[in-house]
Histidine kinase
Amino acid sequence: MARILLAEDEEILRMLVLDTLEDEGYEIDEAVDGQEAYEKLSENDYDLVILDYMMPRMTGLEVVEKTRAVLNKKEMKMMILSAKNQQSDRERMKEAGADYFMSKPFSPQQLLETIGEILGA
């Protein structure tokens, strides 16, 4: 099954997503802030990275930019979760290198369907 990195600083949301994905058989690594996510990305490869936009120590956007530029992981699929869903925000995320965007709030089923589409399941 696919290996996913989940970076979300809100514990309740992180646990909800973690439980949802583990129930579907995904292997999940988790990070509580952007810096921890970046450190895990520097050491591991993932089929998908799911990042909260607004996190301490490094935003999801900064993680995407740094992962693409410094770690040169251009093929890794990256999704940003955010309550910031203005068109300008979405364009900024795409410019940074995010492949996908999901607006908060979202349902577990919506998340699973999107991940299935991304991973071709």
About this structure: The mean pLDDT is 94. The first helix runs from residue 11 to 23. The chain has one domain: 3-119.
